[in-house]
């Protein structure tokens, strides 16, 4: 496995793989790799001839009060995971290499969806995400890009960017990997104290309950939202950020559930903020193409 720190060399490595008739699989990460990242790497390894992981803690997507400085960094362990997952190349640039002219003033505007939900709690976050992902797409060139459903709004915005700006990238969505008790695996889970960790699976419980309600025919989105908020609220350690029910294609908030919906939760456990989501499909409605396959699209909104 080759570790590349310069943009030009990364571009060349991807070009050389394509010249060798290999499909490039791009797996962007911020490191602190866990089983969620591993599942993306494995999907890319199965489906592509050349797997390129990027490891870059992108300062643009962190707000002033956020955890850029303390974001977990463990490069040696990450390189071991990447090698063990069959990566061909890891692109690990410095901040100066990615942004040689300093913070860019030409950026990707995520549109209105970028200001809602996670975007409302974290102003500027999705502009930072889309800008770095656009740069990685520009460097990697024609490829498949692997992203987790865990960050469903990020995935939806990346899909929109690809549809609307036409980088030569096929987005592949990979299902959320969970701990045995349902907690979605996240680099931030290590920050939870023992009591917070014990409370955190309430997010999964609220989402699974609500998914069951929709599957059994509950059409009133307000009742579904209130149910999720109620379950989260039953744990004194959990402070709800939002409980939302959005159309899985348009991401608009709904009153009535008529087709597949995305159920979304954000909550704080102490100072750690966690997010999670599931797809829920009402009876008689066809689910969108399953994630994990290059053919799956979903999110056809806007
Ligand atoms: P990061 O949080 O490191 O996540 C990298 C990728 O792993 C994302 O696509 C994310 O959705 C996926 N992922 C994280 N936890 C997962 C889980 N439990 N199951 C499945 N997939 C999971 O997301 C980012 O980095 C950054 O915003 C990035 C896209 C790299 C841009 O900087």
Question: Largest sheet at a glance?
Answer: 6 strands, parallel
Identify the overall geometry: globular
Ligands present: pantoyl adenylate
By CATH's scheme, which homologous superfamily of the largest domain applies?
HUPs
Q: How many strands? A: 9
- β content, as a range? 15-25%
**CATH architecture heading of the largest domain:** 3-Layer(aba) Sandwich
Average per-residue pLDDT, rounded, comes to 95
CATH top-level class of the largest domain: Alpha Beta
| Residues in helices, as a percent range | 25-40%
Number of domains: 2
Total helical segments: 10
What is the H-and-E element order?
A: EHEHEHEHHHEHEHHHEEE
Q: Numbering strands along the chain, what is their spatial order in the largest sheet?
A: 1-4-3-2-5-6
Distance between the termini: 40 Å
Low-pLDDT residue spans: 295-302
Radius of gyration: 19 Å
Class by SSE composition? alpha/beta
Return the CATH topology of the largest domain: Rossmann fold
């Amino acid at each position: 496995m080759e570790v590349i720190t310069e943009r030009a060399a990364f571009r060349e490595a991807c070009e050389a793989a394509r010249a060798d008739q290999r499909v490039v699989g791009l797996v962007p990460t911020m490191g602190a790799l866990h089983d969620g990242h591993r599942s993306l790497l494995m999907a890319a390894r199965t489906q592509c001839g050349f797997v390129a992981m990027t490891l870059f803690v992108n300062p643009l997507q962190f707000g002033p009060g956020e955890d850029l400085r303390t974001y977990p960094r463990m490069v040696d362990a990450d390189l071991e995971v990447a090698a063990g997952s069959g990566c061909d190349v890891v692109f690990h640039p410095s901040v100066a290499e990615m942004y040689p002219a300093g913070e860019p003033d030409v950026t990707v505007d995520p549109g209105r969806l970028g200001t809602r939900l996670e975007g409302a709690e974290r102003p500027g976050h999705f502009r930072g995400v889309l800008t770095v992902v656009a740069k990685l797409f520009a460097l990697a060139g024609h490829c498949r890009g692997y992203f987790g459903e865990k960050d469903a709004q990020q995935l939806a915005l990346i899909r929109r960017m690809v549809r609307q700006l036409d980088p030569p990238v096929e987005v592949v969505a990979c299902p959320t990997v969970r701990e045995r008790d349902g907690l979605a695996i996240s680099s931030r889970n290590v920050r939870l104290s023992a009591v917070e960790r014990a409370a955190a699976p309430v997010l999964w419980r609220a989402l699974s309950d609500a998914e069951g309600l929709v599957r059994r025919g509950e059409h009133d989105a307000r009742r579904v939202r209130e149910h999720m908020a109620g379950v989260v609220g039953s744990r004194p350690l959990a402070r709800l950020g939002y409980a939302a029910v959005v159309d899985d294609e348009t991401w608009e908030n709904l009153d009535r559930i008529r087709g597949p919906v995305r159920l979304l939760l954000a909550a704080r456990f102490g100072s750690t903020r966690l997010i999670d989501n599931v797809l829920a499909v009402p009876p008689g409605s066809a689910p969108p193409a399953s994630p994990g396959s290059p053919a799956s699209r979903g999110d056809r909104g806007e």
